[in-house]
Amino acid sequence: MGRAILPRLRQGAGGSGGGRGPVAQQVTTLELFFDLVFVFTITQLTATLGHDHGWGGAGRAALLLALMWWMYGGYAWLTNSAPPVTPKRRAFLLLGMSGNFVMALALPHAYSTDRVVFAVGYLVVVLVHAFMYVTESARVTAGMVLQLLVWNTIAAALVVVGAVVGGSALVALWITAVLVDTVVPRLAALTPLRRLDPGETPAFTLVPAHFVERHGLMLLIVLGESVLAIGVGVSSGGGHIGAEQVAYAVISLALAASLYGAYFGTREDEAAERALEKAPEHRQQAVALNSYGYALVVMLLAVVFTASGLHHALGHPLQPVGLEWAAHLSVGVAGFWVGLAFFRIAIGRHDVGLRLAGGLVLAVTTWLGTQVSGLVQLVALMLGSVAILLVEHRLRPILPPHVELPTTDHTRPGPATEAR
C-alpha cells in the first residue's frame, strides 16, 4: 500500500491491447469514493446481524454480501479496464454507485418490506456495469459479452423475480443467482463455450498493480469502519464511559491492528501483485478471482461477524456474553485468518498451515466469552492474533523471495470463464 492514491494513467498497459482509451495504473479518487459508498454495505450488514443474530440471520447476511460483492468485483474489473477519467465514465460510475447505495439502504429489510427496492438497485448496478463495459472497455470479447449480458443479467433477473415472489422462494432464487454468477461460468468452461474467443486469449485482462491496490484499499477501509463502529458505540452509549469500556475499545483497536498487519504488514499485496504479473495469461483471471474475489469476501464477512460481536459486548465487557454473540466474535476473527490462508493458496503460496491452525484455535475462545467475559475473550483473540504474526515472522521472512504458481491446473478456465 505504499503507492499513492493518484489518478495517474498509462496508455495500453496491462495487455489490454485496445485503442478505446487509457488503462488504469493507480486507483482514482472517484473509485475510492465508490468504495466508501460500498463500505456502507458492511455497516448495514453489521447492524442487521445485530438484530437478526441467529445462524439463520448469519446465512442471510452472507447471501446478501455474496450478491453485492460479486458486482463490486465487477466494477473493480471494469475500472481496471476503463478508468473513470472522462465525464461519460464518471457519470456511469456514479449511477452504479447510486444503485449500490440503494441496495445498502434496503439491507435491514431486504428479505421483507424492502426486497423490491434491493432488487431494483441490484438490477441498476448490473445493467450499468454491462453497458459501460461493452461500450467503454479498451477491449471487448465474445466471452466478456457472455458473462456480462447473459450470466450477470440472468442472475439479476432471478434477484428481481425472487423479490417479487417473496417468501421461501426469494432465498432459493437469490442463492441460484449467486450460483449463476460464480459456478455456471466455470461449468461453461467445460463446454464449447470456452472457444468463443480465438486462441488462448482470455475474455478479460487486468493491470495487476491497480487491481491489487483497489482491493487492498477496500480491505483497509472495512477494517477502519469496524474500529469506527466501536468508537461510536462507546461515545454514544448514553452513560458514563468506565475503565472497562476504555480497555475494551483500546484492545479492539489492537485486534484490528493485528488483522491489518496480517495482510499489509506481511506484504500480502506485493506477493499478490507479483503472482498476477507472473501468471500465464490464461491463468491470471483465475488467480485474481480466487484471491480477491472468493478469499477476500471471506475476510470481509469475517469483519462483519467480528464487528457484530464486538459491539454487543461493549456495554458490559466484564460480563459473560451469549453463545451467539461470543461465536460471532471468535468465528469472525478465526474466519479472517482462514480467509488470509485461502488468499495465500490462491496466489500460489504454501505457507498457510499456521494461519489455518491458528484460526481454528481462535474459534475455541467462544468458551471464554460465554463462561468468563467478553473482555477476556477479546484479549485472548488479540493475543492469539499477535502470536500468529510473531511465530510466522520467526519461521520465515516477511515476503518469500519467490512466489510460485501451481504447475498443475486440472480446471483451467477457458476464455469465457470467470469474467466479471
Write the layout of secondary structure elements.
Layout lengths: L8 E2 L12 E2 L4 H23 L3 H27 L5 H20 L8 H22 L5 H24 L1 H16 L1 H5 L19 H28 L7 H23 L2 H11 L2 H33 L9 H24 L6 H11 L2 H6 L2 H22 L25
Antiparallel strand pairs: 1-2
Helix pairs in contact: 1-2, 1-3, 1-8, 1-11, 2-4, 2-6, 2-11, 3-4, 4-5, 5-6, 8-9, 8-10, 8-11, 9-15, 10-11, 11-12, 12-13, 12-15, 13-15
Structure characterization notes:
There is one protein chain. This protein has a two-stranded antiparallel sheet. The two termini are about 25 Å apart. It is globular and about 60 Å long. It has 15 helices and 2 strands. Helices cover about 70% and strands about 0% of the residues. Helix 2 (about 55-80) packs across helix 11 (about 280-315), helix 8 (about 210-235) runs parallel beside helix 11 (about 280-315) and helix 9 runs parallel beside helix 15. The longest helix has about 35 residues, at about 280-315. The protein has about 425 residues and is mostly helical.
